[in-house]
Amino acid sequence: MNTNPSTAPMRFADPGVSLYAVAENAIQVVCPACQGRAEVVPWLDGQPRSPYSIRWPRRLACHACGHVRNWPGEAKHATSCWGGPVDPYFRQPLWLRADCCGGQTLWAFNERHLDILEGYVGARLRERGERPGMTMLARLPGWMKSAKHRTEILQVIGRLRASLSR
Fold this sequence. Notes:
Layout: E1 11-13, H1 19-22, E2 27-30, E3 37-42, E4 58-62, E5 68-71, E6 96-100, E7 104-108, H2 111-122, E8 125-127, H3 142-145, H4 150-164
Parallel strand pairs: 1-8
Antiparallel strand pairs: 2-3, 3-4, 4-5, 6-7
Helix pairs in contact: 2-4
C-alpha cells in the first residue's frame, strides 16, 4: 500500500470490520522458541467450523524451527485476551508491532490489519460505516486518529509491512 501521505487516497470509508474479524486468519507472532516469525491460525483438526470464530481452537506454528502449540491445549476453559500488542490466544508478542509517536505502540495482527490501518490513517476524509462506534477503526486511540501523526504512523506501517517479506 501507499505510505506517502501526499499521494494517499483522499477518502476512506470504514469497512465495518471488527478486531475479531481481522484475526480470523493468520496472526503474525514472535516464535517463543526461536524468536522468528510464527503464525497463529484456526485449527479445526477435521471439526466443522463454529459460527463464532473467536472460539475456534488455534495453533501456533513456526515454519523456521517447527515449534507448535495448540490452544486451548490441555486447559479446555482457556480464555482469549484482546486489545494489545500480543496475540489474544497464546499471548505471544505480535510480529507487527513498533514504537510510534513518542512512546505509543503501533500493532497489527496481519497484513490485512495493516492495510485497513494504512487506508484509514492515510486518508484526508474518513467516513464512518453503518455501525458507528462498533468497529475496529472507531475504537482506535486518539493518537492514531490525529492528523499530526499521519506521516510517522504511515512510515512505521511501511517498516512493519517490510518485515513480512523477510
